[in-house]
Amino acid sequence: MNNKTLKNTNSLIYIASDKQQLETLLRKTYEWIETKSLKIDFDVVKNKKGDKYIGLNLKAHNKRVEELKKTNFFAKEFLDNYNKIGLKIGDNLKTKKIEYLVGDLPPYGNDTNMWCDCQDSPEEYWKTMKISIVKIENNKANLNWTWTEWKDKSKYNVKAIKENGIWKIACLEGFDYDSLTKI
């Protein structure tokens, strides 16, 4: 977990600590989410009358999964879970296990943005968010972050794993399968 330097005949190569790598991963992920991401999670399809959603827009969903994958911020575990959530939401709509009326908030989730468990966020919060590393062990890490601007005491939990030597997000609190797919 310490910083390391390797001596090379021409220069010193700096290798960031796990803690620094995890903090950078989180900041870059949230910057991407807020500035470059399509920001459409679990896009749904309306019925012919246009008053209810009846399923998942599979083409848009697959495009979103690919978009997430291309960032290289997310572990296979996260991507698989994200895909599974979307497909289950689509199935629940299709089989009428849940009803989602146009104009209403989604019947899944907790009426907040899944990425931050928030309805609003400070400007460029990824630059100032307070990141706490809870535990790093065996290429797995538990961490959380909080807002600094709003002095909010709530914490958003994150799990990360090393895949091929690179830290990636394995789990974000807002993407809990059970809470997003409960009926």
> How many E-type strands?
9
Radius of gyration: 19 Å
Give the CA-CA distance, first to last residue: 43 Å
Q: What's the CATH C level?
A: Alpha Beta
Largest sheet: 4 strands, antiparallel
Q: Please tell me the CATH architecture by its name.
A: Roll
Q: N-to-C SSE series?
A: EEHEEHHEEEEEH
Write the SSE topology.
Layout: E1 4-7, E2 12-15, H1 18-35, E3 44-46, E4 52-56, H2 58-71, H3 76-94, E5 100-101, E6 130-137, E7 140-146, E8 156-163, E9 166-172, H4 177-181
Antiparallel strand pairs: 1-2, 3-4, 4-5, 6-7, 7-8, 8-9
Helix pairs in contact: 2-3
Provide structural commentary.
- The structure is a single chain.
- With 183 residues, the protein is an alpha+beta fold.
- The chain has one domain (18-181): Roll (Nuclear Transport Factor 2, Chain: A), CATH 3.10.450.
- It has 4 helices and 9 strands; from the N terminus they run ββαββααβββββα.
- It has helices spanning 18-35, 58-71, 76-94, 177-181; strands at 4-7, 12-15, 44-46, 52-56, 100-101, 130-137, 140-146, 156-163, 166-172.
- A 4-stranded antiparallel beta sheet has the order 6-7-8-9. Strands 3-4-5 form a 3-stranded antiparallel beta sheet. Strands 1-2 form a two-stranded antiparallel sheet.
- A hairpin with a 5-residue loop joins strand 3 (44-46) and strand 4 (52-56).
- Helix 2 (58-71) packs antiparallel against helix 3.
- The longest helix is centred in the middle third of the chain and has 19 residues, at 76-94.
- The protein is globular.
- 20% of the residues are buried.
